[in-house]
Design a protein that fits this description.
Blueprint: H1 3-8, E1 17-18, H2 21-24, H3 29-44, H4 46-69, E2 76-79, H5 82-92, E3 100-104, H6 109-122, E4 125-129, H7 138-146, E5 153-159, H8 171-180, E6 184-189, H9 200-203, E7 207-211, E8 223-227, H10 229-232, H11 253-259, H12 272-281, H13 284-305, E9 322-327, H14 332-341, E10 345-346, E11 349-352, E12 355-361, H15 368-384
Parallel strand pairs: 1-10, 3-4, 3-5, 5-6, 6-7
Antiparallel strand pairs: 2-8, 7-8, 9-12, 11-12
Helix pairs in contact: 3-4, 5-6, 13-15
The structure holds pyridoxal-5'-phosphate.
Length: 389
C-alpha cells in the first residue's frame, strides 16, 4: 500500500498539504468508526452503557493500552489531554515555600502556566534551566539540565519530546538520576506514545502523561495519566464525584477518582484496542522507520533553506517524526496564515523564548513530494514577501 492509499484511510482534506500531525494527530477511518460505534451504543442504551457496559469496556481498553505502554493498568487512568493530567498532578503536589521545580526552558506553554499558577500560590520557585541549542551530545544536555539542581529542588519536570523545538530529551536517564537524588519525576510525554519506544516500567517516572490522539491515532480527547502507587496516595481528584468514599469501591482508589466525573462520553478512550490493532495491521513500525529516514534527509535541507541549522545531531536519539527548523521572521502568525491560505500547507510556526521555528511533522500518510512542495513555497515566500529573512 503506497502513501496515497494510506492517506485515503484518513479523513484529512485532500486540498491541504498536512504537515502538522504533531498538534492534534489524525484518526484513520477504522478507528473513527470504532469511536462512532461506541457513541451509538451510548445513545441506544444510555443508562445501561453509562452504568454497566461502559465501565467494563473502559477497563478492557485500559488493559490493552497499559500493555502497550508496559505498565500496570492499576496505575493508569484515561484523561482527555495532558493539560488535564498535569492540572491533576500539580494541584495535588505538596508544594511549599522555597521548594524548587527543575525543568528545561523548552516546556509546553500551557503546562508552564499550570506550574506558574501553583508555584506562585505556594511561594515555590520554577527553575527553567537553559538547554543550549543545537544539542551536541546527550551527556552535555544532561549535564546542562542538572546544573539547575540545588538543595531546594524537590521535583523534576521534563517533556520527553518538546513541543516548539521538537527534540527528544533523555527522560529515562534523568528519571534514574532524579531517583538516586530522592526527587519526584513528572514526565510530559504528550508526543511519545506511538512515536518513539516507551516502556513505563523501564522509565520509572513517578508521573507520566501521554496522548493517544497524536501518534497512536485515536480520536481527539484520549490521553492517559500514569502514577506510581506511591504518587497515587497524594493525588486528589480534580473533580469530586461518586468515586470519593464510594459505597462500592473498586480495587483502585485511583480508578474510582478518575473513571467517572459526572456524565461524559468516554468513546474516544474505548478505541485504544482498535487503534493499536490498526498500527499493527498497517506495519506501523516499518512505516515509522521510513518516516524517520525522510526526516533525517530533509531536516538539514529545510533548515539550510531557512538560513539556520538543525537543532540536534541527525540520530534517533534526538529526532523522531517531527523537526523544528529555526526561522527568522518578523511576523510568525502572518507567516503561518500565508502558508495555509495561499499555499494550502498546514504547518505550525512555533515559538520558544525569542526564537521561532517551522515545525514539520512527517507521518506515514505524507510523501517526500509534500516536503519538496514546502521547500518550493518557502523559496517563493522568501522571494515575494518580507516574512522570512
Ligand atoms: C509537549 C506537550 N505537552 C503537552 C501538550 C498538551 O496537549 P493538550 O493541549 O492536548 O493538553 C502538548 C500539545 O501538543 C505538547 O506538545
Amino acid at each position: 500500500m503506497d502513501h496515497l492509499d494510506l492517506r485515503k484511510q484518513f479523513q484529512l482534506n485532500f486540498d491541504i498539504t498536512f504537515l502538522n500531525h504533531g498538534s492534534f494527530g489524525a484518526c484513520p477511518i477504522p478507528v473513527f468508526e470504532d469511536y462512532q460505534h461506541w457513541q451509538k451504543k451510548l445513545e441506544q442504551e444510555p443508562v445501561q452503557f453509562m452504568v454497566h457496559q461502559g465501565p467494563k469496556v473502559l477497563n478492557k481498553s485500559r488493559e490493552t493500552l497499559a500493555k502497550y505502554l508496559d505498565c500496570d493498568p492499576m496505575d493508569m487512568v484515561y484523561v482527555p489531554n495532558p493539560t488535564t493530567a498535569m492540572n491533576i498532578v500539580i494541584k495535588s503536589l505538596p508544594l511549599k515555600e522555597g521548594d524548587e521545580v527543575l525543568m528545561t526552558d523548552q516546556e509546553y506553554g500551557a503546562i508552564d502556566k499550570v506550574w506558574d499558577y501553583y508555584a506562585e500560590r505556594a511561594g515555590a520557585k520554577i527553575v527553567r534551566q537553559k538547554i543550549h541549542l543545537p544539542i551536541r551530545s546527550k551527556e552535555e544536555t544532561i549535564k546542562q539540565f542538572w546544573s539547575g539542581l540545588s538543595n531546594k529542588t524537590k521535583y523534576v519536570f521534563l517533556s520527553q519530546i518538546t513541543s516548539a523545538t521538537a527534540l527528544i530529551y533523555p527522560a529515562q536517564e534523568i528519571c534514574q538520576k532524579a531517583k538516586e537524588l530522592g526527587l519526584i519525576t513528572i514526565i510530559d510525554g504528550a508526543h511519545v506514545p506511538g512515536h518513539i519506544p516507551l516502556s513505563l516500567n523501564e522509565m520509572q517516572a513517578d508521573i507520566y502523561t501521554g496522548t493517544c490522539h497524536k501518534w497512536i491515532l485515536s480520536p481527539k480527547g484520549s490521553s492517559f495519566l500514569y502514577a506510581s502507587p506511591e504518587m497515587q496516595q497524594i493525588i486528589d481528584p480534580l473533580i469530586i464525584s461518586w468515586g470519593y468514599k464510594s459505597p462500592t469501591p473498586s480495587s483502585s482508589l485511583f480508578h474510582d477518582y478518575f473513571d467517572y466525573n459526572g456524565t461524559k462520553d468516554i468513546s474516544a478512550y474505548l478505541t485504544s484496542p482498535v487503534a493499536l490493532q490498526f498500527l499493527e495491521d498497517y506495519n506501523w513500525e516499518e512505516r515509522k522507520q521510513k518516516c524517520r529516514l525522510i526526516q533525517k534527509h530533509y531536516y538539514p535541507i529545510i533548515s539550510k533553506q531557512l538560513g539556520g541549522e538543525v537543532l540536534c545531531p541527525l540520530s534517533d536519539e534526538y529526532l523522531g517524526q517531527i523537526s523544528s527548523s529555526p526561522i527568522k521572521t518578523n511576523d510568525p502568525v502572518a507567516l503561518q496564515a500565508l502558508l495555509y491560505h495561499k499555499y494550502k500547507i498546514e504547518i505550525p510556526v512555533t515559538t520558544n523564548g525569542n526564537h521561532h521555528f517551522l515545525r514539520v511533522s512527517y507521518q506515514a500518510y505524507n510523501s517526500a513530494q509534500e516536503i519538496e512542495y514546502l521547500l518550493d513555497c518557502i523559496k517563493n515566500i522568501q522571494q515575494t514577501t518580507s516574512y522570512l529573512s
